[in-house]
């Protein structure tokens, strides 16, 4: 489930000169190229995107495309804010910050070590079986929570389990497969991601209908990803009785109570994790106060509750926060916000518009692929909003498969690049945390075969299977 919040934007609210749009399009392209060459230019992602954001804001100020002035508040008052503040999706920032703190503090209770060892014992030390356990868990967590939280929790468990088995060399494969599966899990329900909500509600797709239509693909794509990941990364089943006996003896010696210093804190952590899952899952509903505050608030609230246990020594947890990741997202949102005001996303939408008139099958397939490519380098939320408006304005009404093409493309595009979705970038960050160095292009090379498989399966599914399903 993606936890981005819709930025305060007004598509097409002001006319923008074509040369400005092309200028900003070039800036976006330059940013992507620099991210691809980050190792050669020896720069962190946050610095590359930060420079892009600064240039975009300066260009926006000089060209007059940014909406300067007070911001209207719900109570009728106005507030003067820096022009870029409404463009930052604070839900993403707070969910990453809150979830990271919550998981870090909760891990001190020994809960995650307990779960990891339990799953490792259930796998009997077989790496492939463990990959299946964690893969399915990732999809379920992404569907009912959000894909960033799912990646943080499952990634942490994977590192513990493989460390216990003495197979840390397989951690890169586990984390990459789990990162890809977060975006597949984000397809499962209407509320699993913001693009689902935008497109689904505009197309008037009901919750049950959405689930019935999307679930078969999610099941097939999950299985295909795990099988392919096991082959690509050499995550094999134990083959001989001797290997199985050694592994079973190894896991039998594991004690899930290792790391539990206080049973009281352990059970408190377990209760908080269950409550955290319930609150995050229900935060998508606006009918109750927590839902109005959003998932970011839920993550921060539970982080604060857990920090109370270490109220006199919270500095050690704050120092462990990945500030580079947080600032990367802040700068990225600012840059994309400026691109949106410059008409770059609208240009992308107009470029896709002629595809729609090609017919349900040819046009639908091309729309899915093009929206996936577009969402791999820019925010899929405003892109989904632009394409929804285009589809809604078509007369006569477009084939229902067109809506699903946008839904699948916007979600699966996140698997093409590490900046395509928050969860894939979090997966890369966890890799770096465990000294598994992987560059922008390194991720693309490893993820591209999976992404192509996902998009081919999605295209075939949307064009030839979806219309025959109930709902």
Question: What attributes does this structure have?
Answer:
22 helices; two-stranded antiparallel ribbon; mainly alpha; 471 residues
Cα(first) to Cα(last) distance is 22 Å
Low-confidence stretches: 1-13
Number of helices in the DSSP assignment: 22
Give the SSE string: HHHEEHHHHHHHHHHHHHHHHHHH
Structural class assignment: mainly alpha
Question: What does the secondary structure layout of this molecule look like, with pairings?
Answer:
Elements: H1 18-36, H2 38-41, H3 45-63, E1 71-72, E2 78-79, H4 90-107, H5 111-122, H6 127-144, H7 147-165, H8 171-185, H9 194-202, H10 207-232, H11 241-252, H12 263-282, H13 289-293, H14 295-307, H15 315-318, H16 323-341, H17 344-356, H18 362-375, H19 380-393, H20 400-412, H21 422-433, H22 440-464
Antiparallel strand pairs: 1-2
Helix pairs in contact: 1-3, 1-16, 3-16, 4-7, 4-14, 5-7, 6-7, 6-8, 6-10, 7-8, 7-21, 8-10, 8-21, 9-19, 9-20, 10-22, 12-14, 17-18, 17-19, 18-20, 18-22, 19-20, 20-22
What does this structure look like?
- The protein is mainly alpha-helical.
- The chain has a domain of 167 residues.
- Helices cover 69% and strands 1% of the residues.
- The protein contains 22 helices and 2 strands.
- It has a two-stranded antiparallel sheet with strand order 1-2.
- Helix 1 packs antiparallel against helix 16 and helix 6 packs parallel to helix 8.
- The longest helix is centred in the middle third of the chain and has 26 residues.
- The radius of gyration is 22 Å and the shape is globular.
- The two termini are 22 Å apart.
Brief rundown of the structure:
The protein is mostly helical and 471 residues long. The protein has helices spanning 18-36, 38-41, 45-63, 90-107, 111-122, 127-144, 147-165, 171-185, 194-202, 207-232, 241-252, 263-282, 289-293, 295-307, 315-318, 323-341, 344-356, 362-375, 380-393, 400-412, 422-433, 440-464; strands at residues 71-72, 78-79. β1 and β2 form a beta hairpin.
């Amino acid at each position: 489930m993606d936890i981005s919040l819709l930025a305060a934007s007004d598509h097409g609210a002001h006319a923008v000169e074509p040369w400005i749009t092309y200028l900003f399009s070039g800036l976006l392209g330059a940013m992507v190229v620099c991210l691809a060459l980050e190792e050669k230019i020896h720069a962190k992602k946050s610095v590359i995107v930060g420079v892009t954001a600064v240039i975009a804001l300066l260009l926006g100020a000089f060209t007059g495309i940014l909406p300067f002035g007070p911001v209207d508040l719900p109570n009728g008052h106005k507030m003067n804010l820096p022009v870029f503040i409404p463009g930052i999706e604070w839900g993403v920032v707070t969910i990453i910050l809150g979830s990271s703190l919550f998981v870090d503090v909760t891990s001190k209770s020994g809960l995650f070590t307990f779960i990891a060892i339990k799953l490792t014992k259930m796998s009997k030390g077989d790496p492939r079986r463990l990959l299946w356990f964690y893969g399915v868990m990732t999809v379920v967590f992404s569907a009912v929570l959000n894909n960033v939280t799912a990646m943080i929790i499952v990634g942490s468990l994977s590192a513990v389990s493989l460390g216990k088995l003495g197979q840390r060399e397989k951690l890169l494969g586990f984390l990459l497969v789990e990162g890809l599966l977060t975006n597949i899990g984000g397809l499962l329900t209407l509320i699993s991601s913001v693009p689902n909500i935008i497109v689904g509600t505009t197309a008037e797709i009901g919750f049950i209908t959405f689930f019935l239509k999307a679930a078969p693909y999610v099941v097939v794509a999950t299985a295909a990803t795990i099988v392919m990941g096991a082959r690509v990364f050499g995550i094999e089943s134990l083959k001989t009785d001797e290997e199985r006996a050694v592994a079973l003896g190894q896991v039998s010696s594991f004690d899930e109570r290792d790391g539990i210093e206080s049973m009281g804190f352990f059970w408190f952590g377990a209760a908080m994790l269950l409550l955290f899952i319930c609150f995050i899952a229900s935060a998508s509903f606006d009918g109750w106060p927590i839902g109005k505050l959003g998932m970011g608030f839920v993550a921060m609230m539970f982080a604060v509750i857990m920090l109370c246990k270490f109220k006199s020594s919270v500095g050690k947890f704050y120092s462990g926060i990945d500030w580079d990741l947080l600032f990367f997202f802040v700068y990225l949102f600012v840059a994309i916000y400026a691109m949106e005001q410059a008409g770059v996303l609208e240009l992308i939408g107009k470029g896709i518009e002629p595809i729609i008139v090609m017919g349900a099958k040819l046009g639908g397939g091309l729309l899915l692929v093009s929206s996936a490519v577009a969402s791999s380098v820019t925010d899929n939320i405003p892109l989904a909003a632009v394409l929804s408006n285009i589809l809604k304005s078509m007369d006569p009404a477009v084939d229902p498969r067109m809506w699903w093409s946008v839904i699948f493309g916007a979600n699966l595009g996140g698997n093409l690049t590490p900046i395509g979705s928050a969860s894939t970038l979090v997966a890369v960050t966890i890799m770096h945390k465990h000294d598994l160095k992987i560059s922008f292009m390194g991720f693309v090379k490893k993820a591209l075969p999976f992404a192509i498989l996902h998009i081919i399966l999605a295209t075939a599914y949307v064009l030839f299977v979806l219309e025959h399903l109930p709902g």
